[in-house]
Amino acid sequence: MKMYVKTVVALAAFLMVAVISFVLFLSGDSSASSGYTTTGDTGLENFKFVKNIMIWFMLMLVAFLMLFIKKYEWGVALAVLLSAAGSFVVYLAIKQFLFGVSIEEAWNQDLMLMGVICAITVVIAIGCFLGKLKMWQYFVAGILFAPVFLIVEWFLFGIGLEHEGLLHMVFGFNASDAGGSMLVHMCAAYFGLGVAIALREKRAFNEPMYTTTHSVSFVWLASMLLWVLWPSFVTALLPADQVFWGMMVCYLAGIGSIISAWIVCTAIQKKVNPLIYTYAMLAGPVAIGAPLLMIGPWAALVIGLIAGVISALSFIYLHPRLTKAIGALDVMGVHNLHGVAGWFGAIVAVIAIPLYGIDGADSLTNLVGAIGVFAISIALGIVIGFVLKLTRGKFPDEHMFSDDADFIKSEKPAE
Amino acid sequence: MKMYVKTVVALAAFLMVAVISFVLFLSGDSSASSGYTTTGDTGLENFKFVKNIMIWFMLMLVAFLMLFIKKYEWGVALAVLLSAAGSFVVYLAIKQFLFGVSIEEAWNQDLMLMGVICAITVVIAIGCFLGKLKMWQYFVAGILFAPVFLIVEWFLFGIGLEHEGLLHMVFGFNASDAGGSMLVHMCAAYFGLGVAIALREKRAFNEPMYTTTHSVSFVWLASMLLWVLWPSFVTALLPADQVFWGMMVCYLAGIGSIISAWIVCTAIQKKVNPLIYTYAMLAGPVAIGAPLLMIGPWAALVIGLIAGVISALSFIYLHPRLTKAIGALDVMGVHNLHGVAGWFGAIVAVIAIPLYGIDGADSLTNLVGAIGVFAISIALGIVIGFVLKLTRGKFPDEHMFSDDADFIKSEKPAE
Amino acid sequence: MKMYVKTVVALAAFLMVAVISFVLFLSGDSSASSGYTTTGDTGLENFKFVKNIMIWFMLMLVAFLMLFIKKYEWGVALAVLLSAAGSFVVYLAIKQFLFGVSIEEAWNQDLMLMGVICAITVVIAIGCFLGKLKMWQYFVAGILFAPVFLIVEWFLFGIGLEHEGLLHMVFGFNASDAGGSMLVHMCAAYFGLGVAIALREKRAFNEPMYTTTHSVSFVWLASMLLWVLWPSFVTALLPADQVFWGMMVCYLAGIGSIISAWIVCTAIQKKVNPLIYTYAMLAGPVAIGAPLLMIGPWAALVIGLIAGVISALSFIYLHPRLTKAIGALDVMGVHNLHGVAGWFGAIVAVIAIPLYGIDGADSLTNLVGAIGVFAISIALGIVIGFVLKLTRGKFPDEHMFSDDADFIKSEKPAE
Questions:
Q1: Sorting pLDDT into bands at 50, 70 and 90, what band is A21?
Q2: Which residues on A lie below 8 Å from B55 (Cβ)?
Q3: Which of the four pLDDT bands, split at 50, 70 and 90, describes residue C279?
């Protein structure tokens, strides 16, 4: 009976979505048949096509970066897909219907890039509370996150040419954050932390998270390929003549954290914890986002070295203290990578702007920007976290960090 | 003794191929040393270079999408490589020697793209009968499939400028199938089903197909990355100014099936069967192939939502009935994704062409095209299936869905 | 106490690197804030951006190609990261400070490409001695390899326009090796073999290297994707109008070795050894490097067919004899793929140059080039191998091919 009710509810919801969309189909889209015409440079369009694919690739890899708890692997994959789908489609809808004019004007490569960047942000954020919600709630979390991301985007940069951002209204400058240290990483970490704080799942501390050789080998694969693809992320929206510079400093920063995270892990814990190293080795690319175009390759190497140290130290020393203090487990240690290295990148930009006299950038704007992103993200994260907590219903202990309730499994019976 | 004979036969076959090829080497190719000159736009050439790589990437991922039976993982990988190699090289040879003039004219990026599209089609098709043949027969299946694909290509679109297709002769129009719903997906599903019908391996129904956490994690990886790379497939042969539109609608359709396949799986079976979901979440991109340039983003979302529903329902309800009716197991459920969603895409195009008055396309042509692809593929599949059945020799039960007979394994002995 | 000392040493080393780099940061880089300007074609710059990413992608996949020993998986991943980081950063530093003028002149897409090609070469090379060193020594091996690679590069081609290579001084020609058969593959194989000879770890022969289904499935994944991405590697530094030709012959050669390696494995050993096949199927792309632009697609297929045969035969017959003769185990069989197929490609080029009258290439130069790369690489490999042996300290049996000493593991305790 219960299953029957669910079936009816789900199909009704599906039909509602289908009918609403079908109206849009019949009204708004017929102009599409006339074909989309690129307004600018075909070469650049093609290049952005490739970057779109690479950033979606990264989004999926984030799932495998978080897939180390053997009894919760498939659950992570599905939660990533659902939260990404929810945020992506709502972000695009808001951009078109609230800020766009016609389909041809609203939809272009940059919109698609911002959509997947919004989606990857929520995918990073759910790392703070994976395994603490029911599966359908990750879809809802994605949907609710899209407006949060738009607020942060508007705060830092404005939306398009017509909607000036808050920072620009106050200081006369937009924030400088070419590679997303603030917009993506800080927003993800503090939104996720906000949700975790609202959930306050004390049980999470007691649940063992056993791994196996291969569950962690998937993490190595994901981390190493994320490192490789990262330049396409930090240069996603750059003009063509700055793309090379962005790639160069991104890789140098990444080399830095590969080296320094290993030194710190080995020096302090004697053996490397792969679930620290595979994350902390990405701290350089996270931190380089804000100062991306302000510094050269060797400075990028130094920033990467320092970011790797800070992130590894956060995993080892800050993580247990912080999670205890707030009473909420940051499951994947998102804050130790994206939060801490994001802050570090933001601060480097605040220092570098006056130091090198960067044109079109303002140090104070960036500082206020970082604080603002922190505040907006954590506050709205807490609000949405309470919504998720209230709608979660019963959540027995054995569902924590386990996808047994979500999937049909067909393992060979023990002989 | 027996092994000695096999060695001699194999080396003789190799030498024959080598000598034949060496004649070509000495005669036809010396002009190649003068170097290949691009006839058109360097930027577009480079873009097609990237797409070639991405589609080969997808081909390999299809192997991992089918790698969930733990005792048949490596076998799937090798069967994919051999069938792809056989079909690719034969397709290129036919195009050059039957339809080409000189090497410089025959060989270009579009030929390479069509070659890998032919190869990926047979790789999808073998999913219907994986584990039911001897390893060398997948190589033969690839070789025999290449002319089948060329017939379907000629039927729908003609071959080059000089060889008008059958549909065009009769109706004055080529089929409209920019993203391959008919050419690739329907052809693969019905060719594969045809082979399976000829084999009629009733034993296949009784063989258990046990999975493990990680054999299915590979499937998640493959499915998620196939989803990501799909736009490069549907836009492979499009002119530059339509590439963005193709990518946009492909991703929107993909978002649709990610959402709706999950709703259907959860609603009907209470828990998600990952071996249904990871396939059905790709139904949107399959279905969007035919109407690719006819519809806008929100219509694409709706098409994806519906395709995900149809595909998931096919796995749950149609699959057991159909396979029982034809007495042949579709091992990987190819028909539920590529067959059913391919048909759906083809029918959407048939409706959209008159609805929106699409230039250069004809509704009836597309309808006859879909029926023709179905008929040609299944008929030639049955013929080739009998060839494979007759040449297979003894095939003991324990070889079914197992690669123990194919590989040397070096696992640690149980202690 | 001991750990405390190590911590201090490590942090001191880190601070030293950081301070040195910071000086560079403050002095050399401030000009960077003026932004990098591309000197040429934006389209080509963007294309090289994509190729940079693809070659880094390949580098990481080489790790997974070597990840089949179940108790040494994570160790391979970390050793790859550390050796790549060490060689990449030292290569870039030497190029800028010894051969460059200003940052703007030194740093461009081609420098980044050569850097990652240097890094991938050492990553291949360590396959000869993985599991025989302490973890930090792979970082040192990377650092020490960078000058070796520069010597080989200078010997074959010279460094930039101002530093004429040795071969050019003597013969008036540079070597012809567009796709790196000599520069990358032979250099990697013989440098690695040189290190292995210096180490002479007889214990390595007795250590069992057990695999599991999935440790080898990762190898299949890596091999298949390396095969796919290979064209970006062989065409990395080609002018735009030769890129298509390079891709075409690379794929045809790859098809050849996919087919012939399987025939040889099956014919000789009855069953396929996946740890031979997944390597030997890459022999075609290795061998095609030197004659890349000299031959056409069908000749490439023949070269691939022969390369696959030679490489598979080397694994089966040459490997046990050679490793016994030199008293050192080539752990991953690097020589059977990169050494043997590299030699074969070099010899094909030596024959093809006079046969087809290739402009700007000289047969004798290429022959001397191949012999020179062999001699330089193995000699410097032996030297560096002794450095590594002397600094290794105690290395107990149980650390051989095991990463238990390197990593914190959190597997579920047996119940």
A1: low
A2: none
A3: very high
Other CB atoms closer than 10 Å to residue B167's CB: what's the count? 23
3-class secondary structure, B290: coil
Side-chain-facing half-sphere of B209: CA atoms under 13 Å: 20
Surface of C (224-283) touching A: CB under 8 A: none
* Mutation target among A55, A244, A271, A295 for the C interface, most CBs of C within 10 A: A244
Closest alpha carbon within chain B to C306: B18
Distances (CA, A) of C306 to B11, B30, C285: 11, 19, 12
A70 interfacial to chain C (CB closer than 8 Å): yes
B271 and A405 within 8 Å at the Cβ level: the answer is yes
CB-based contact B54 A57, cutoff 8 Å = no
Residues 6+ apart with CB under 8 A from B413: none
Question: Which of C34, C56, C118 to mutate to probe the A interface, most A CBs <10 Å?
Answer: C56
Q: Name subunits touching B (3+ CB pairs < 8 A).
A: A, C
Question: Angle, to 10 degrees, between the axis of helix C42-65 and the axis of helix C109-125?
Answer: 10
In whole angstroms, how far apart are CA A370 and each of A119, B28, B238?
20, 65, 43
List, in sequence order, every beta strand (DSSP E) within C147-219.
none
Listed in sequence order, the residues at least 6 apart from B47 whose beta carbon sits closer than 8 Å to its beta carbon are A46, A49, A50, B240, B243
pLDDT category of residue C410 using cuts at 50, 70 and 90: confident
Per-residue pLDDT, averaged over B111-122, amounts to 96
Chain centre distance of CA C104? 28
Number of neighbouring beta carbons within 10 Å of residue C238: 18
Q: Report pLDDT for A8.
A: 56
The answer to whether C10 contacts A271, with C-beta atoms less than 8 Å apart, is: no
Q: Which residues of B16-32 are buried (b: 16+ CB within 10 A; e: fewer)?
A: ebbeebbebbeebbbeb
What integer is the mean pLDDT of A43-47? Answer: 83
Chain C hits for A285, CB-CB cut-off 8 Å, are: none
Distance CA B139, CA B407 (A): 17
| Residue A224 φ then ψ, to 5° | -65, -40
Sort out which chain C residues have CB atoms less than 8 A from B63's CB and list them. 220, 224
Best-predicted range by mean pLDDT (A135-139, A211-215, B96-100): A135-139
For residue B57, the chain C residues in CB contact (below 8 A) are: 225, 228-229
C-alpha–C-alpha distance, residues B95 and B154, integer Å = 12
**Structural tokens at position A83:** 């939260």
The answer to which of A15-19, A56-60, A394-398, B243-247 has the lowest mean pLDDT is A15-19
| Predicted local confidence at residue B372, as pLDDT | 97
CATH fold for the domain made of B44-399: Ammonium transporter fold (1.10.3430)
- Partners of C149 in the β-ladder: none
The residue that leads in pLDDT, C378 or C36, is C378
Look at residue A32 in the predicted model and tell me its pLDDT: 41
Pairwise pLDDT comparison (B28 vs C178), residue with the higher score? C178
- Interface size A-B, in CB pairs within 8 Å, comes to 199
DSSP B220-241: HHHHHHHHHHHHHHHTTTS-GG
Q: Which of C225, C228, C269 has its CB closest to that of B408?
A: C269
- Three-state secondary-structure class, residue C272: strand
Question: For the whole model, what pTM was predicted?
Answer: 0.93
Which H or E run contains A354? helix A340-356
The DSSP output letter for C411 is B
What does B332-367 look like in DSSP terms, one character per residue?
Answer: T-HIIIIIHHHHHHHHHHHHHHHHHT-TT--HHHHH
Tell me, what's the pLDDT at C36? 45
The per-residue pLDDT of chain B, averaged, comes to 89
**List of chain B residues whose C-beta atoms are within 8 Å of the C-beta of residue A37:** 241
pLDDT number for residue B35: 43
- ipTM value: 0.92
